[in-house]
Fold this sequence. Notes:
single chain, alpha/beta, Elongation Factor Tu (Ef-tu), domain 3, Rossmann fold, Ubiquitin-like (UB roll), 3 domains, six-stranded parallel β-sheet, 7 helices, 20% helix
Amino acid sequence: MEFNALKVNNVKRLTDKAVGVSIDVTKEYKKAYSFKAGQYLTVEHLYQGEKIRRSYSICTAPTESQLVLGIKEIQQGKFSVFANRELSAGDELLVSSPEGRFTFENNRWRSKNILCIAAGSGITPIMSIVKEALTNHNSNTVYLLYGNQSEADEMFAEELEQLSVAYPKRLKLFRTYSRIASDKGAFGRIDNGLCLHTLKNAFNQPKLDVAYLCGPEGMIEALKETLHNYGLPEDKILYELFYSEKEEMSSSIEGQVQIDVLIDGVTHSIMAPADKLVLDSLLENDLDAPYSCQGGVCSSCICKVKKGAVEMIKNQILTDSEITQGLTLSCQAKVIEAPLSIDFDDV
């Protein structure tokens, strides 16, 4: 994974616990940082002697001049705390090129009814998708269901109001708050009932072409079934997790195992505990394997199994056909057949 040193243009306060970080992409890097709506960047920074690497969604549209990341402060989140409390204009960050499969389907020849559902900071990639959808085709209609704990927690509130004014007939926005009652929206979390109620009453039962969901795992799993029953094919329900529940899995083999790994054309061989996640073993051996979230919710650490076998603790990224082809998330994989040979270049 390649990183370039880029300067921060501006840090804009969005809420008491969230900022929009504008990155200065100079002319020489314009091509490297072109992106699709919904993608993310991985940011690396040395903080208090520790290298921190995190992924954050781009919240601007590809047609906008600025590249902005939305970063919500998470309790004990080292980089998010730094970004919200210390990061300022003129600072330099190491930034990877855009990645991610949660992207807007660009079709300038046909208008669409597009449902977007976001909970909390899940709005960051959704903002990019909403803006791209509205400008991509002058007949696209976007239905946005946006949930927060309170009005004070609502990221991009001002910008959403501006979009509603600019596109009064093509952006249908409905808010809900889980901890306060407000005349700006409903009360409650986004679940099956609220989703169907909003589609029927606030959005007047539109015939949907595609849905984009971003938020916690529980919400995503519930709404996938709801929207499928509403009439959307499974391949038109696109989602990205911002939080994933961890599961424990015991390894079927014990002791040390051999792992051969190809990274950037160079093969490395290490011995590692069988019960340790593959990516953790690689990083502990100072191998520069690509990674970002380390939670199984991005796609930075995908590699291909060439020999041996692994089993993933959690997978919300790869399709069954991709797994059959040998692809795996190294941050979620444990060795179940050794020796293991994996390739980060052939993905």
